[in-house]
Amino acid sequence: MSEDCLIRLKNISHSYSTGKKSFMALKEINLDLKKKEFVALLGPSGCGKSTLLRIITGLQPPTSGEVLYRGERLEGVNPYATIVFQTFALFPWLTVQENVEIALKARGVPPQEREKMALDLLDRVGLDGFEGAYPRELSGGMRQKVGFARAMAVEPELLCMDEPFSALDPLSADSLRGELIELWTTGKIPTKTILMVTHNIEEAVFMADRIVIMDKSPGRVISQVLVSMSHPRNRKSPEFLEMVDWIYALMAGQGHSVDGSRDAPVGGGLKGRGIPPISIGDLAGLLERVFEIEGGRCDIYQLASSLKVKDSEQLLRLTEAAQLLGFATIIAGDITLTTLGEIFAEASILTRKEIFASRIKRLPIFKWILERLYASDKGEIEIEEVQSLLEEDFSPEDVENQIKTIINWGRYSELFAYDDVREVIFLEEHP
Amino acid sequence: MENIFQHLSPPGDRKYSLLGDIIVLIFVAVLIYLGITLAFHAPSEITGPTIGLSLHLLPWYALLSVSRMVAAYILSLVFSILYGYAAVKSRYAEMVLMPLLDVLQSVPILSFLPVVLLSFSAILPKGIAVELASIVLIFTSQVWNLTFAWYQSLSTIPRDLREASKIFHIRGWLRVKTLDLPFGAISLIWNSMMSWAGGWFFLMAAEIFTVGKKDFRLPGIGAYLQEAANRGDIKAVCWGVVTLIVVIIALDQLMWRPLLAWSSKFKLNMTDSEPPVTSWFYDLLVDSRILYRLRKGISRLLERVDMWLIHLSYRREGRGKKRRSIPVMVITTGAGALLLGIYLYRSILLLSSLTSHEWWHIGVALTATFLRVSMALVIALLWTIPVGVAIGTNPRIARWLQPIVQIAASVPATALFPAFLLVVLRLPGGLNTAAILLMLLGTQWYLLFNIIAGASTIPVDLRYTARLLQLSKWQKWRYLILPSLFPYIVTGIITAGGGAWNASIVAEYIEFAGKTLKTTGIGSTISQATATGNYPLLLAATLAMIVAVVTINRLVWRPLYALAEEKYHLD
User: Fold this and answer.
1) Which residues of chain B have a CB within 8 Å of the CB of A81?
2) Contact, B107 vs B546, CB < 8 A?
3) From CA B75, how far away is CA B140, in angstroms rounded?
4) Do A108 and B178 count as a contact with CB atoms less than 8 A apart?
5) Are strands A158-162 and A193-198 parallel, antiparallel or unpaired?
6) Using the beta-carbon criterion (under 8 Å), do A106 and B311 form an inter-chain contact?
7) What are the residues whose beta carbons fall under 8 Å from the beta carbon of B373, sequence distance 6 or more?
């Protein structure tokens, strides 16, 4: 093992089991984190990136494989690592200062020293004067600053951040990113390595030295990108935009080229990646917008800013749905409407429903449901049946999302209806 | 009080198994059997204390009653916290402890009273035995909802806070202090208030319990009220009731309200629409200089304790964890099962000495009490639904009616039983009617408060919509009010029903003014068996009552509750 390697993941796999079924969250991850490196873990939700972060910090043991810290096998929580949480995870009943101090107290630092260190850290993150405030009195950005101060307090070698900026408003997030990068690049913090989990491509390109791209079902690393631009990075520079675009393409194109199963015009849905959890209104909105654009073709990244979509992940899901249903094709980060997509964009509500119905009928999961419905005497099946089928491929959380989307799509297309009380899917025109 | 039920643990949100229920019931049966075997040695005659009626004795009696409550409460709190940790720490412990809690929660506690009193007086000197029995009784009434609330709070601590504690090495005592206790504080305090309200009911019952020649009374405010009613001293009755109300209101104002006001800082939600609880006494305390110094001193002391414990935990870490091996667990479980089996066999032997006539009698008595409980519930529903809806949907009525209702409800029904008897025994139907009214007295408040809570959650826009649609009065009740109240009514009935079964123990068999009054019922059977020393009958009747109540809960209320949760939830 080389000198400058801090963390090494060897064949990490992780699966959750619910009852008899088990779901593979992570599959054979091999990854090194070097000293003096800022690594971003980028991927769609459900790809297991947060789980991976918990395995790296020792909060959760992996089902198989091992984590080496400085060449030694990690057992239990890593004492040299710390986490900045997406939800801040501050104790609401402690003041800002007490929240920072508690981390020091747990390490046995005596009161006077503790106080001095905490005040100094709060000063450094710009919270001077807020020591006595309770977290509920602060804005999201300020709360996360407390989160940073608390994490710095224990002088971690490995600083892990779990989507640290995603619960903040865009302005606070931007300034906090800048401040963190400044602390990091000027060496004001003793941290050796930073690992950040995110689903925001721009954020990853803005901050990280290396971007590890993951995909789901099962969670795995599909690609790694080195970012060699110097800090502070300019988001408007052609170099920056090109890199973001490229990663968009990498992520959007994923799934077609690799497993091949998605090359068919209408595929997926049962095995593999499932149907993207999106609302039909959003999908129609996207298609209309692309249709308005000259030539029915545009760059996904530009689309993101013109549609004012909050996170890139939602946009990716929408484009994935458009592609899955044959309304659009995606090549090298560009989205182009198909003829069907153009018809859909212009159509009336009823025609849209018909088109939608004819498309989703061909998705394996809908095919399966309709077959069961026609086969049953009463023209109904219990949602539990669908659920247990999906449990083979998805995490419990994803199963719930899938079911919601399936019911939504089914209701919209009028292929079937759903009785919420009895929890059955049924055919409306059944005799 | 108006939102107390929001903080109560719902009775039906866990899965349960028939096997678990049966094992727990066997466990309870063996426990009662062991009590009964001790009871065989209980003296056949027990003389009670003399209760004076002079006014200057009242503060002393009040103090005695409150001390019993405090002792039982401390016991409950300690027990709850340890039990909760045990259940959360190990999945296996949880599998045993939670069903046990569930059954014990629905068992009518007062049915234990005779067994506990008899077995304690068999092994302990009389004074101590009765004191201890009353404390145990209050404990068993207070502890379950506290334990359940604590367990729930421990198992619902948000994942991010748990992980933050782990990653920052906040553990042991420090974790208890910074995470577990603060997180559970609000629910613990609300449930403590409920526990106290319930505890008074049982304390009063314990203080006045007399059967035949066995006088188990205790000097206290309950006994004072009973003695006053016995002698027909109306003035003393009034003074007793006033003292009781004053004590209860003082505890509310000087203890619970300040605690609630203080606990609002433990709210997890950063923003909350609920108006904060205010307390004048708390504001007074916060401003006090002496208390400020005292607090500083205490926190310095605590700091030292904390640091010492933290260093200790670091030192202990090196030694590694001890793990109980599987064979040991198997052997302990096996031995436990064997003992349980032996005693179960013995209790069946004891039960088999009962004649078929006696079994028949138990059946009749159960049916009679069941009918009485149902009557009491129906009457309670008939008046609480309209009144509760009126209070819950109309802030103007609520403003002046709510405080009156709260004070009326704060008086434990058992304290009023003797005084109440002076009036109701003259009604047609004698004790039979009286018993129903006594049950009603003990149970209606649970229903009323639940219905008020339910009615006040009906969204205003739905009420406007109902008016816009010009629904008739009947349609409004049919489609809006009753469906929204349904979950609250079911919750109320579960609690109220439990209270009514409990009340049967003291309502169906009464020693009053030197006479013994009784009517057919399971409560009366239990009391009579205690009086005559018919212990097999006592065991059979107590078990029959417990099994009946648990069965009704499982077969009727659980499914209804599940339905209510699923279909009629307004959120």
Assistant:
1) 167
2) yes
3) 10
4) no
5) parallel
6) no
7) B439, B497, B500, B501, B504
Nearest CA in chain A to B562: A421
Write out chain B residues lying below 8 Å of A95, CB-based: none
Q: Show the DSSP H helices in A154-226 as ranges.
A: 170-185, 201-207
Chain A nearest-CA distance from B563, in A, is 10
Using CA atoms, how far apart are residues B66 and B71, in angstroms rounded to an integer?
9
Greater confidence, A317 or A311?
A317
Average pLDDT value over all residues in chain B: 83
Closest-approach residue (CA) in chain B for A162: B160
DSSP assignment of A361-429 equals TTSHHHHHHHHHHHHSTTSEEEHHHHHHHHTTTS-HHHHHHHHHHHHHHHHHHTS-EEETTTTEEE-TT
DSSP A258: T
What's the token pair of residue B293?
A: 């110094």
Q: Would the CB atoms of A91 and B310 count as touching at under 8 Å?
A: no
| More confident call, B430 vs B269 | B430
pTM of the entire predicted model: 0.78
Does the beta carbon of B565 lie under 8 angstroms from any beta carbon of chain A? no
Pairing assessment for the beta strands A334-337 and A328-331 based on DSSP bridges:
antiparallel
Is A54 in the B-facing interface, judged by CB distances under 8 Å? yes
What domains sit in chain B, N to C, each tagged with a CATH number? 355-571 (1.10.3720.10)
Chain B, residues 277-306, CB within 8 A of chain A, namely: 303, 306
Closest CA of chain A from B409, distance in Å: 34
A135 CB-near residues (< 8 Å, 6+ apart): A88, A90, A91, A92, A94, A96, A99, A143, A146, B270
Confidence of residue B3 (pLDDT cuts 50, 70, 90): very low
- In A, minimum Cα distance to B160 occurs at A89
| Confidence label for B322 from pLDDT (cuts 50, 70 and 90) | low
DSSP string, A301-330: HHHHHHHT-S-HHHHHHHHHHHHHTTSEEE
Are A123 and A199 in contact by the 8 Å Cβ rule? The answer is: no
Q: B20: how many CB neighbours lie within 10 A of its CB?
A: 17
Give the mean model confidence (pLDDT) for residues A70-82: 89
Radius of gyration for the alpha carbons in chain B, expressed in angstroms and rounded: 25
Tokens at residue A420, please?
């919420």
| SS3 assignment, position A32 | strand
CA distance to partner chain A, nearest, from residue B478 (Å): 19
Distance in angstroms between the alpha carbons of the first and the last residue of chain A? 70
Flag if A106 and B265 touch (Cβ within 8 Å): no
Work out the percent of chain B whose per-residue pLDDT is above 70: 93
**Inter-chain contact A92–B567, Cβ cutoff 8 Å?**
no
Strand partners, B359: none
With contact defined as beta carbons under 8 Å apart, do A420 and A377 qualify? no
Query: Model confidence at B17, in pLDDT bands (50, 70, 90)?
Result: low
Q: Residue B303: closest CA among chain A residues belongs to which residue?
A: A111
- CA–CA dist A165, A143 (Å, integer): 11
Q: What is residue B209's predicted lDDT score, i.e. its pLDDT?
A: 83
Q: B350 with B39: CB under 8 angstroms?
A: no
Of A77, A89, A105, the CB nearest to B161: A89
Residues B438, B503: contact at Cβ < 8 Å? yes
With both helix axes pointing from N to C terminus, report the angle between B234-251 and B395-410 in degrees, rounded to the nearest 10: 110
Kindly tell me if the per-residue pLDDT of A156 is higher than 80: yes
ipTM for the predicted complex: 0.76
Mark which residues 261-280 of B lie under 8 Å from A by CB. 265-268, 270-271
Looking at chain B, which residue has its C-alpha nearest residue A159? Answer: B167
Compute the distance between CA of residue B291 and CA of residue B511 in angstroms, rounded to an integer: 50
- CB-based contact A77 B166, cutoff 8 Å: yes
Contact B168 A85 (CB under 8 A): no
